[in-house]
Amino acid sequence: MISPVLENASVAQPLVGRLWRQLRLVERLLLDHRAAAVARFGAVALETIDLPPLTAPQEMQPEQIRAAGALLWACELEEAGLPGFVDSMADLVLQGKFLLPISTAVDKLMLYRRARSERFAPGERKAIYERVFSDDFQSSWTGLLKTLDVIAHVGTTENLSAPTARLVAAAREVGVYLSQHTGGIVAFAASSIAQQVREALAVLKSPDLVQALGGGSVWQMIRIHAPVVLGRALNPEPHLDRATAALRITGWLANAAAAIEAGMPQLPSPDALEAAELWLASGSAV
Fold it and tell me: Residue 28: which residues within 8 A CB-CB, separation 6 or more?
């Protein structure tokens, strides 16, 4: 049964605008990584999918960290429903298990599905995320977030020496990990997934499909139809907050890499502190 047109859809529209801006940022970060790879390995990097890390072991590499941030953004976006929702809906429509009026929306879905062999499948994306963002990463990342949170709440008259020292250690641990674990196919995967997000978002913004799904924003449609399309309920917003925080924190970490490696750390930017609080406040969303 198709839902009636949702009221107050404009409330969630800024989230979609934010996603488009982040998508452009992610694409630029991955192009910067490609340029760094060319500078490191030569023109052969343009034709190589399985690139080694750009730096020696136990060193932080800014472009590699930013590429990892792009992949972490994609991982959280996956939890929010993209591009998996569109993948599953296209399959269900083809199988006759999810009925849509015959329109350009169905044509776009089928064109999207036809190109599936050129993309990473949902299981492949999951395997990449699990390989990079393992339990070791989660432990280090949580430590970094909590250290940033401590600094955010330190009073102006308190001594920051001890928390800053802990931050340097935590930041370097995460930075080195991401620099070493985002070589190989990871940067290529991040670029491919970002393109798939772009294509899936374009499908969901199709006026015919919006009407067929009952109207509302992209995230409202995903939330309402996820139980049928994905077989589970979704709460996109906390994961969107984490996706935003991932880009901001890894961006700060990349910018601070040289200072951290040189033993001349600076206090984190307000943006990084706010991003850490944003991530921690998102909780364990469904």
Answer: none
